[in-house]
Amino acid sequence: MPRTEHPWPSHTTVTLPWRSSVRGPRHDRETTSVVASVPPSIARLPWSPDADTAALLDRAAAALVHLDEHHGDRLAVLGRVLDRTEAVATSRIEDEHATLDDLARAVVGVRANRSATAMVRAGGAIETLVSSAASGTITERALLAAHHRLLRDDPVDGRYAGRWRDVQNWIGGGATPRLARHVPPPAALVPELMDDLFAFLHRDDLHPIAQAAIAHAQFESIHPFTDGNGRIGRALVAAVLRRRGLARIVTVPVATALVAERDRYFWHLDRYRRGVVDEWVRDLAIAIGTVCDEATVTALLLDEAAVPRGSRWWPTRAHDAVARTLLDDPVVTEDHLEQLLDDDARSIDTVTDDLCRAELLRPVTERRRRRAWLAVAVADEVTAFTDRVHDAVTHRANRVGW
């Protein structure tokens, strides 16, 4: 039986004067006004799920709590692996594409791949915002700090890093907003709308996952920055879950599921602007449940793949020390190894050569200094995790006829 959507106010509109500042088609040049969308105030809006949705939200929350409690402390690598995975996935939603090899090179300053550099910045922004939410609040200062970390080195939007936009923006449609998919509210309304959103973020009467879903959709509608809104908005989901206590350690890589059905994700954001919210809440719950199930598999597989340790396995203590770090992060940098081995370049070369021959490390840089490697077992599992999540999401999409 079809579910009944709970009432939620749709966006209103406001007509703004517009004059194109770029050359383009005649219709663009002759456009004199644009219709912008204005989200409703949601700080005190009531929302409650039906019985089926409530059960779905509770199952997803339980899966996240179980993952965090049973694997967060026991296997610290899981958190770092999921952080890397989330940075990659959230950037792919924005059409930034790169491999883990590219990301590893960007970590040590090789900037040949612009998308990989964007992923490194996205990972830092996620970490900044989610860590701050552990204090029990999500503040304007923390959100702006995360955005600054994301865009401070951007050659185009770096000057806007860490501050609300003071210009009109739009989504889709090319160089002008005439054919845009969404025209966010005027810049003058952004501070007021964000104050309202921060008030919503500090409510405790909503299910945490529903709160995260609604907050994300509201944030994307406001589009408070000139760029980076999608990546900061998806980090906001993890921040809400951290503030509400569902995940003390793990950052759930929800973007890994969203990127598998990217068009449906954007469709949900469009429908939110028309006052349809329940189905988006349910889909986010399913996404969280899916990635938690697959992350549990990842935790168990990485635990089984732990590198043999001890002098009977490795010829020197240096070998053993590096081997102990191989499950900490898929990216192994020379800077880290220098700290670990007291800046002993000879030991670094010997150990990394031996571990590469044993197929435990794989080099991803060719230069002589500030090198990087991938931990093979961890990197392979990151790829497998992403594939499993994609298969699970697309299987469900095919089954229900999305």
SSE inventory with pairings:
Blueprint: E1 12-17, H1 26-30, E2 33-38, H2 51-72, H3 77-93, H4 100-107, H5 114-133, H6 140-151, H7 190-201, H8 208-222, H9 229-243, H10 254-258, H11 262-272, H12 278-304, H13 317-325, E3 331-333, H14 334-340, H15 345-357, E4 361-363, E5 372-375, H16 376-400
Antiparallel strand pairs: 1-2, 3-5, 4-5
Helix pairs in contact: 2-12, 3-5, 4-5, 5-6, 5-9, 7-8, 8-9, 8-12, 12-16, 13-15
Task: Please describe what this structure looks like.
- There is one protein chain.
- With 402 residues, this protein is mainly alpha-helical.
- 55% of the residues lie in helices and 5% in strands.
- It has one domain: Fic-like fold (Orthogonal Bundle).
- It has 16 helices and five strands.
- The chain has a three-stranded antiparallel sheet with strand order 3-5-4. A two-stranded antiparallel sheet has the order 1-2.
- It is globular, with a radius of gyration of 23 Å.
- The two termini are 17 Å apart.
- The mean pLDDT is 85.
Category from helices, strands and their pairing = mainly alpha
Q: Are there runs of 5+ residues with pLDDT below 50, and where?
A: none
Number of structurally distinct domains: 1
How do the helices and strands follow one another from N- to C-terminus? EHEHHHHHHHHHHHHEHHEEH
Name the strands of the widest sheet in spatial order: 3-5-4
